Amino acid sequence: MRTEPFLVLLTVLLLAQAASSKEEAVDLGPHRVTFSLPSSVECALTVAEPLEGRTPTGIDYIERSIDLDCGGGRASISLRAHQSPVPAGDGVVRALSKKTPWGIGVVGVETEARLVDRHTGYLTTFSLARGGEVYQAAYWLDRHLAPGDFMGSTYCVISSSLPWTATKELLDSIHLEVKEEAARASTVETVAVGPYLVYFDLGGLSYTVFTEGPHAGDPEPGAERYRAILASGQRRATIEIDGYDDYRMVNLETERLLAEAHLQAKGYTRNNGSVWTVGGEAGILGVGEDEDHQILFVAIFWPGQVEAGEGVLLARTRCEVESSFLWNATEILLDTIRVERIGEV
Protein backbone atom coordinates (compact mmCIF):
# COMPACT_ATOMS: atom_id res chain seq x y z
CA MET A 1 0.00 0.00 0.00
CA ARG A 2 2.87 2.39 0.68
CA THR A 3 4.10 2.10 -2.89
CA GLU A 4 0.93 3.51 -4.46
CA PRO A 5 1.43 7.19 -3.46
CA PHE A 6 5.04 6.90 -4.63
CA LEU A 7 3.97 5.54 -8.03
CA VAL A 8 1.38 8.31 -8.41
CA LEU A 9 3.97 10.92 -7.50
CA LEU A 10 6.50 9.40 -9.93
CA THR A 11 3.92 9.47 -12.73
CA VAL A 12 3.13 13.11 -12.04
CA LEU A 13 6.82 14.02 -12.05
CA LEU A 14 7.43 12.20 -15.34
CA LEU A 15 4.47 13.93 -16.96
CA ALA A 16 5.65 17.28 -15.65
CA GLN A 17 9.14 16.62 -17.02
CA ALA A 18 7.75 15.69 -20.45
CA ALA A 19 5.58 18.81 -20.45
CA SER A 20 8.53 21.02 -19.52
CA SER A 21 10.14 20.63 -22.93
CA LYS A 22 9.03 21.35 -26.46
CA GLU A 23 10.41 19.67 -29.56
CA GLU A 24 11.14 21.49 -32.79
CA ALA A 25 11.60 19.90 -36.23
CA VAL A 26 13.20 21.91 -39.03
CA ASP A 27 14.28 20.94 -42.55
CA LEU A 28 17.78 21.89 -43.66
CA GLY A 29 18.03 20.83 -47.29
CA PRO A 30 18.04 17.03 -47.43
CA HIS A 31 18.36 16.80 -43.63
CA ARG A 32 15.83 17.19 -40.85
CA VAL A 33 16.97 18.47 -37.47
CA THR A 34 14.98 17.90 -34.30
CA PHE A 35 15.79 19.32 -30.88
CA SER A 36 14.17 20.34 -27.62
CA LEU A 37 14.36 23.39 -25.38
CA PRO A 38 12.69 24.05 -22.03
CA SER A 39 9.15 25.31 -22.51
CA SER A 40 10.08 28.39 -20.48
CA VAL A 41 12.52 29.45 -23.23
CA GLU A 42 10.70 31.43 -25.91
CA CYS A 43 12.58 31.69 -29.21
CA ALA A 44 12.04 33.15 -32.65
CA LEU A 45 13.35 30.63 -35.20
CA THR A 46 14.85 31.67 -38.53
CA VAL A 47 16.18 29.39 -41.28
CA ALA A 48 19.03 31.14 -43.13
CA GLU A 49 19.54 31.01 -46.87
CA PRO A 50 22.02 28.29 -47.95
CA LEU A 51 25.59 29.47 -48.44
CA GLU A 52 27.83 27.90 -51.07
CA GLY A 53 31.59 27.86 -50.69
CA ARG A 54 34.82 26.03 -51.42
CA THR A 55 37.53 24.78 -49.08
CA PRO A 56 41.19 25.83 -49.59
CA THR A 57 41.77 22.43 -51.22
CA GLY A 58 38.98 22.99 -53.77
CA ILE A 59 36.13 20.95 -52.25
CA ASP A 60 32.71 22.57 -52.78
CA TYR A 61 30.26 22.70 -49.89
CA ILE A 62 26.83 24.01 -48.92
CA GLU A 63 26.18 25.42 -45.45
CA ARG A 64 22.68 25.60 -44.00
CA SER A 65 21.79 26.98 -40.58
CA ILE A 66 19.07 27.76 -38.06
CA ASP A 67 19.14 30.82 -35.80
CA LEU A 68 17.25 30.95 -32.50
CA ASP A 69 16.70 34.38 -30.96
CA CYS A 70 15.56 33.68 -27.41
CA GLY A 71 14.72 35.77 -24.38
CA GLY A 72 17.68 34.48 -22.41
CA GLY A 73 20.23 34.47 -25.25
CA ARG A 74 20.66 33.02 -28.71
CA ALA A 75 21.58 29.76 -30.37
CA SER A 76 22.40 28.50 -33.84
CA ILE A 77 22.68 25.12 -35.55
CA SER A 78 24.90 25.04 -38.63
CA LEU A 79 25.24 22.10 -41.02
CA ARG A 80 27.96 22.01 -43.69
CA ALA A 81 27.83 19.30 -46.38
CA HIS A 82 30.91 18.84 -48.58
CA GLN A 83 30.78 17.46 -52.11
CA SER A 84 33.43 14.88 -51.26
CA PRO A 85 35.17 13.75 -48.04
CA VAL A 86 37.57 16.11 -46.25
CA PRO A 87 39.78 15.61 -43.16
CA ALA A 88 37.63 15.01 -40.08
CA GLY A 89 40.03 13.92 -37.34
CA ASP A 90 39.70 14.78 -33.67
CA GLY A 91 41.91 17.82 -34.18
CA VAL A 92 39.55 19.15 -36.84
CA VAL A 93 36.49 18.57 -34.64
CA ARG A 94 38.18 20.27 -31.70
CA ALA A 95 39.12 23.26 -33.88
CA LEU A 96 35.53 23.58 -35.13
CA SER A 97 34.23 23.71 -31.57
CA LYS A 98 36.89 26.29 -30.58
CA LYS A 99 36.20 28.70 -33.46
CA THR A 100 34.84 31.76 -31.64
CA PRO A 101 31.16 32.27 -32.53
CA TRP A 102 29.53 35.60 -33.38
CA GLY A 103 32.73 37.60 -32.88
CA ILE A 104 32.42 37.57 -29.09
CA GLY A 105 35.24 38.69 -26.81
CA VAL A 106 36.55 35.92 -24.57
CA VAL A 107 38.98 35.67 -21.69
CA GLY A 108 39.02 31.89 -21.33
CA VAL A 109 38.40 28.76 -23.40
CA GLU A 110 37.86 25.21 -22.13
CA THR A 111 37.29 22.24 -24.48
CA GLU A 112 36.26 18.68 -23.67
CA ALA A 113 35.12 15.60 -25.55
CA ARG A 114 31.36 15.12 -25.55
CA LEU A 115 28.89 12.77 -27.21
CA VAL A 116 26.48 14.76 -29.41
CA ASP A 117 23.68 13.17 -31.42
CA ARG A 118 25.27 9.77 -30.66
CA HIS A 119 28.52 10.90 -32.32
CA THR A 120 31.91 11.68 -30.81
CA GLY A 121 32.29 15.45 -30.67
CA TYR A 122 33.80 18.32 -28.68
CA LEU A 123 32.23 21.01 -26.53
CA THR A 124 33.98 24.34 -25.90
CA THR A 125 32.99 26.74 -23.14
CA PHE A 126 33.95 30.38 -23.79
CA SER A 127 34.24 32.68 -20.78
CA LEU A 128 33.15 36.12 -21.94
CA ALA A 129 35.10 39.29 -21.27
CA ARG A 130 31.84 40.95 -20.13
CA GLY A 131 30.93 37.98 -17.92
CA GLY A 132 28.89 34.89 -18.58
CA GLU A 133 29.55 31.93 -20.88
CA VAL A 134 28.90 30.81 -24.46
CA TYR A 135 28.96 27.14 -25.51
CA GLN A 136 29.82 25.55 -28.84
CA ALA A 137 29.75 21.87 -29.83
CA ALA A 138 30.90 20.25 -33.07
CA TYR A 139 30.64 16.76 -34.53
CA TRP A 140 30.62 14.91 -37.87
CA LEU A 141 27.56 12.98 -38.98
CA ASP A 142 29.41 10.57 -41.25
CA ARG A 143 33.12 10.45 -40.59
CA HIS A 144 35.06 7.24 -41.31
CA LEU A 145 38.58 5.99 -40.76
CA ALA A 146 41.04 6.77 -43.55
CA PRO A 147 44.85 6.35 -43.60
CA GLY A 148 46.12 7.78 -40.34
CA ASP A 149 42.97 9.72 -39.48
CA PHE A 150 39.27 10.26 -40.19
CA MET A 151 37.49 11.66 -43.25
CA GLY A 152 33.94 12.98 -43.42
CA SER A 153 31.52 14.90 -45.61
CA THR A 154 29.03 16.58 -43.24
CA TYR A 155 29.54 18.28 -39.90
CA CYS A 156 27.32 20.16 -37.47
CA VAL A 157 28.18 23.05 -35.14
CA ILE A 158 25.82 24.12 -32.33
CA SER A 159 26.45 27.50 -30.69
CA SER A 160 24.54 28.79 -27.66
CA SER A 161 24.59 31.73 -25.27
CA LEU A 162 21.55 30.33 -23.48
CA PRO A 163 21.90 29.28 -19.84
CA TRP A 164 23.60 25.90 -19.38
CA THR A 165 20.37 24.09 -18.48
CA ALA A 166 18.79 25.10 -21.81
CA THR A 167 22.03 24.50 -23.73
CA LYS A 168 22.42 21.05 -22.20
CA GLU A 169 18.90 20.11 -23.24
CA LEU A 170 19.60 21.33 -26.78
CA LEU A 171 22.81 19.25 -26.97
CA ASP A 172 21.20 16.18 -25.38
CA SER A 173 18.19 16.23 -27.72
CA ILE A 174 19.55 17.34 -31.09
CA HIS A 175 19.30 14.79 -33.89
CA LEU A 176 20.02 15.10 -37.60
CA GLU A 177 18.96 12.59 -40.23
CA VAL A 178 18.31 12.45 -43.96
CA LYS A 179 14.65 13.16 -44.70
CA GLU A 180 12.68 10.13 -45.81
CA GLU A 181 11.67 11.74 -49.09
CA ALA A 182 15.31 12.67 -49.76
CA ALA A 183 16.72 9.27 -48.87
CA ARG A 184 18.48 7.41 -51.61
CA ALA A 185 16.12 5.39 -53.76
CA SER A 186 17.18 1.79 -54.11
CA THR A 187 18.98 1.11 -57.39
CA VAL A 188 20.16 -2.42 -56.62
CA GLU A 189 21.33 -4.26 -59.73
CA THR A 190 21.85 -7.97 -60.22
CA VAL A 191 24.67 -9.22 -62.46
CA ALA A 192 25.42 -12.85 -63.33
CA VAL A 193 29.16 -13.56 -63.09
CA GLY A 194 29.84 -17.17 -63.98
CA PRO A 195 27.99 -19.36 -61.44
CA TYR A 196 27.35 -16.36 -59.16
CA LEU A 197 24.73 -13.67 -58.80
CA VAL A 198 26.15 -10.36 -57.59
CA TYR A 199 23.77 -7.79 -56.10
CA PHE A 200 25.02 -4.25 -55.52
CA ASP A 201 24.08 -0.58 -55.47
CA LEU A 202 26.21 2.46 -56.31
CA GLY A 203 23.77 5.09 -55.08
CA GLY A 204 22.52 6.29 -58.45
CA LEU A 205 25.92 6.60 -60.19
CA SER A 206 25.99 5.88 -63.90
CA TYR A 207 28.37 3.03 -64.68
CA THR A 208 29.18 0.24 -67.11
CA VAL A 209 29.58 -3.40 -66.07
CA PHE A 210 32.21 -5.74 -67.51
CA THR A 211 32.60 -9.37 -66.47
CA GLU A 212 35.58 -11.72 -66.78
CA GLY A 213 36.27 -15.39 -66.09
CA PRO A 214 36.53 -18.11 -65.29
CA HIS A 215 40.27 -18.14 -64.84
CA ALA A 216 40.93 -21.74 -63.77
CA GLY A 217 43.54 -22.17 -61.07
CA ASP A 218 44.11 -18.44 -60.91
CA PRO A 219 44.30 -18.11 -57.12
CA GLU A 220 45.36 -21.75 -56.56
CA PRO A 221 44.49 -25.27 -57.77
CA GLY A 222 40.87 -26.25 -57.15
CA ALA A 223 39.62 -22.70 -57.52
CA GLU A 224 38.19 -20.45 -60.22
CA ARG A 225 38.29 -16.67 -60.35
CA TYR A 226 35.64 -14.34 -61.75
CA ARG A 227 35.53 -10.56 -61.94
CA ALA A 228 32.89 -7.88 -62.33
CA ILE A 229 34.21 -4.39 -63.11
CA LEU A 230 32.01 -1.34 -62.46
CA ALA A 231 33.42 1.61 -64.41
CA SER A 232 32.27 5.23 -64.11
CA GLY A 233 34.52 7.79 -65.76
CA GLN A 234 38.00 7.60 -64.29
CA ARG A 235 36.84 5.67 -61.24
CA ARG A 236 35.94 2.03 -60.91
CA ALA A 237 35.31 -0.86 -58.58
CA THR A 238 36.48 -4.41 -59.25
CA ILE A 239 34.60 -7.27 -57.58
CA GLU A 240 36.81 -10.36 -57.61
CA ILE A 241 35.28 -13.72 -56.68
CA ASP A 242 37.31 -16.83 -55.89
CA GLY A 243 35.24 -20.01 -55.79
CA TYR A 244 36.69 -23.13 -54.15
CA ASP A 245 35.81 -26.81 -54.54
CA ASP A 246 35.77 -27.28 -50.77
CA TYR A 247 35.32 -25.20 -47.63
CA ARG A 248 38.17 -22.99 -46.46
CA MET A 249 38.80 -21.44 -43.07
CA VAL A 250 38.02 -17.73 -42.76
CA ASN A 251 40.80 -15.83 -40.99
CA LEU A 252 40.11 -12.10 -40.76
CA GLU A 253 43.55 -11.23 -39.40
CA THR A 254 45.16 -12.86 -42.44
CA GLU A 255 42.74 -10.97 -44.70
CA ARG A 256 43.63 -7.70 -42.99
CA LEU A 257 47.31 -8.26 -43.73
CA LEU A 258 46.47 -9.21 -47.32
CA ALA A 259 44.40 -6.04 -47.78
CA GLU A 260 47.28 -3.89 -46.55
CA ALA A 261 49.75 -5.79 -48.75
CA HIS A 262 47.46 -5.27 -51.76
CA LEU A 263 47.43 -1.52 -51.16
CA GLN A 264 51.17 -1.40 -50.54
CA ALA A 265 51.87 -3.24 -53.81
CA LYS A 266 49.83 -0.65 -55.73
CA GLY A 267 51.76 2.29 -54.29
CA TYR A 268 49.35 3.26 -51.52
CA THR A 269 52.08 3.48 -48.93
CA ARG A 270 49.89 4.96 -46.19
CA ASN A 271 47.39 2.24 -45.46
CA ASN A 272 45.53 0.39 -42.76
CA GLY A 273 43.00 -2.41 -42.47
CA SER A 274 40.29 -3.03 -39.90
CA VAL A 275 37.28 -5.26 -39.31
CA TRP A 276 34.25 -4.06 -41.27
CA THR A 277 30.85 -5.49 -42.14
CA VAL A 278 30.81 -6.13 -45.89
CA GLY A 279 27.83 -7.61 -47.67
CA GLY A 280 26.25 -8.42 -44.32
CA GLU A 281 29.26 -10.58 -43.31
CA ALA A 282 32.19 -9.92 -41.02
CA GLY A 283 35.01 -8.78 -43.27
CA ILE A 284 37.94 -6.40 -43.66
CA LEU A 285 38.19 -2.88 -45.03
CA GLY A 286 41.59 -1.57 -46.07
CA VAL A 287 42.13 2.10 -46.91
CA GLY A 288 45.21 3.41 -48.72
CA GLU A 289 46.58 6.81 -49.74
CA ASP A 290 49.28 7.41 -52.35
CA GLU A 291 51.74 10.28 -52.78
CA ASP A 292 49.13 12.27 -54.73
CA HIS A 293 46.65 11.89 -51.85
CA GLN A 294 44.41 9.60 -53.87
CA ILE A 295 42.41 7.09 -51.84
CA LEU A 296 41.84 3.42 -52.68
CA PHE A 297 39.58 1.05 -50.74
CA VAL A 298 40.00 -2.73 -50.55
CA ALA A 299 37.33 -4.85 -48.84
CA ILE A 300 37.46 -8.62 -48.33
CA PHE A 301 34.70 -10.93 -47.14
CA TRP A 302 33.59 -14.55 -47.45
CA PRO A 303 29.91 -14.89 -48.46
CA GLY A 304 27.94 -17.78 -47.02
CA GLN A 305 30.03 -18.29 -43.90
CA VAL A 306 29.11 -21.26 -41.71
CA GLU A 307 30.21 -22.02 -38.16
CA ALA A 308 32.28 -25.15 -37.60
CA GLY A 309 33.05 -25.19 -33.92
CA GLU A 310 33.78 -22.42 -31.47
CA GLY A 311 35.26 -19.40 -33.24
CA VAL A 312 35.82 -21.28 -36.52
CA LEU A 313 34.16 -20.02 -39.71
CA LEU A 314 34.23 -21.80 -43.07
CA ALA A 315 33.18 -20.73 -46.56
CA ARG A 316 33.61 -21.76 -50.21
CA THR A 317 33.66 -18.27 -51.71
CA ARG A 318 36.03 -15.37 -51.15
CA CYS A 319 35.20 -11.90 -52.45
CA GLU A 320 37.58 -8.96 -52.75
CA VAL A 321 36.36 -5.49 -53.72
CA GLU A 322 38.78 -2.80 -54.88
CA SER A 323 37.22 0.66 -55.26
CA SER A 324 38.56 4.02 -56.36
CA PHE A 325 35.09 5.56 -56.03
CA LEU A 326 34.65 8.24 -53.38
CA TRP A 327 33.69 6.98 -49.95
CA ASN A 328 29.97 7.78 -50.24
CA ALA A 329 29.58 5.48 -53.27
CA THR A 330 32.02 2.88 -51.88
CA GLU A 331 30.13 2.70 -48.59
CA ILE A 332 26.83 2.08 -50.40
CA LEU A 333 28.50 -0.63 -52.49
CA LEU A 334 29.92 -2.40 -49.43
CA ASP A 335 26.63 -2.13 -47.56
CA THR A 336 24.55 -3.60 -50.40
CA ILE A 337 26.81 -6.13 -52.11
CA ARG A 338 25.70 -9.74 -51.95
CA VAL A 339 27.38 -12.67 -53.71
CA GLU A 340 25.48 -15.99 -54.05
CA ARG A 341 26.11 -19.19 -55.97
CA ILE A 342 23.24 -19.58 -58.41
CA GLY A 343 22.52 -23.13 -57.33
CA GLU A 344 22.32 -22.06 -53.69
CA VAL A 345 20.05 -19.02 -54.07
Sheet bearing the most strands, described? 9 strands, antiparallel
For the CA atoms, what is the radius of gyration?
Answer: 25 Å
Class derived from helix and strand content: alpha+beta
| Number of alpha- plus pi-helical segments | 5
Approximate helicity band: 10-25%
Distance between the termini: 61 Å
Structural shape:
elongated
N-to-C series of helices and strands: HEEEEEEHEEEEEHEEEEEEHEEEEEHE
**Percent range for β-strand residues:** over 45%
Low-confidence stretches: 1-19
Total beta strand runs = 23
Write the layout of secondary structure elements.
Elements: H1 3-19, E1 21-28, E2 31-38, E3 43-47, E4 51-54, E5 60-70, E6 73-87, H2 90-98, E7 106-116, E8 119-128, E9 133-140, E10 144-146, E11 149-160, H3 164-173, E12 175-178, E13 189-193, E14 196-200, E15 208-216, E16 223-232, E17 235-249, H4 252-265, E18 270-278, E19 281-289, E20 295-301, E21 306-307, E22 313-323, H5 327-336, E23 338-341
